[in-house]
Amino acid sequence: MDKNEKMAFVLLMVVGTLLASVGQLAFKYGVDYSIISIPFILLGFVLYGTSTLLYLFVLGRAHLSWTYSFTGLTYIFTNILAFFILNENITPLRWAGIIIIVVGAVIVGRS
Known about the structure:
The chain is mainly alpha-helical. It contains 5 helices and no strands.
């Protein structure tokens, strides 16, 4: 895999994990009220499905050990979205874990 191809794959994986995180947010909105919001749940499925298709595209062209490591970004994006949009509390220990995941993803992405 050349450098340009690798950068394209990294971008696809970041977009895919971001879509999965926004899908989680849509799921949360869809089930967080007294009446279940089907449109938000369907949006969550569409975003998750798109994320999965991006993942499969990259997986077919790159090593599993490299590709799968990017799925940890979903945890980061989901926590950040929950913090800013849902006003959820993120403890200092969880922030430390997020930083460790970021460092790990950067190391694996460069390998």
